[in-house]
């Protein structure tokens, strides 16, 4: 399904290929929408695309990536194709991102920073359950 969404939103999108430019563009995007720059710690990025008119973003990487956010003790899995619709302080309809809760991998579908408390970031799943953490836990290593 992600591949079809990407195909649907390619026309008119800014597309960048390669790991170095892909990492920089993903950080630039997070900065532009006012989310922590360490939120998408992907590696071996193949392509990053952003269709500003629809708000659709995609990131392709060679392999699935597992990352542990040590400040909060959470492990996160990023599949090879991560997609989302973005707007200021929010990523909606996120695909291919999961967080490990106890022994179960839980799908993350919504990520946002509430305008009333810019120091907290909330992650929601499709069932409506959410968890909130300090934004500082998702900063880039050199920003901490």
TrEMBL record:
Superkingdom in the source lineage: Eukaryota
Pfam family, one: DUF538
Stretches assigned to coiled coil: none
Protein name according to UniProt: DUF538 domain-containing protein
Native source species: Erythroxylum novogranatense
């Amino acid at each position: 399904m992600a591949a079809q969404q990407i195909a649907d939103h390619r026309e008119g999108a800014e597309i960048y290929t390669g790991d170095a430019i892909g990492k920089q563009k993903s950080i630039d995007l997070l900065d532009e929408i006012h989310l922590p720059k360490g939120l998408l710690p992907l590696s071996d990025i193949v392509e990053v695309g952003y269709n500003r008119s629809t708000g659709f973003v995609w990131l392709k990487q060679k392999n699935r990536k597992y990352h542990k956010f040590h400040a909060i003790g959470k492990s996160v899995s990023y599949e090879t194709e991560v997609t989302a619709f973005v707007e200021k302080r929010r990523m909606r309809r996120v695909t291919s991102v999961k967080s490990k809760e106890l022994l179960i991998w839980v799908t993350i579908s919504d990520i946002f920073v509430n305008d009333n408390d810019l120091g907290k970031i909330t992650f929601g799943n499709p069932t409506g359950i959410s968890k909130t953490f300090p934004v500082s836990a998702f900063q880039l290593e050199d920003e901490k």
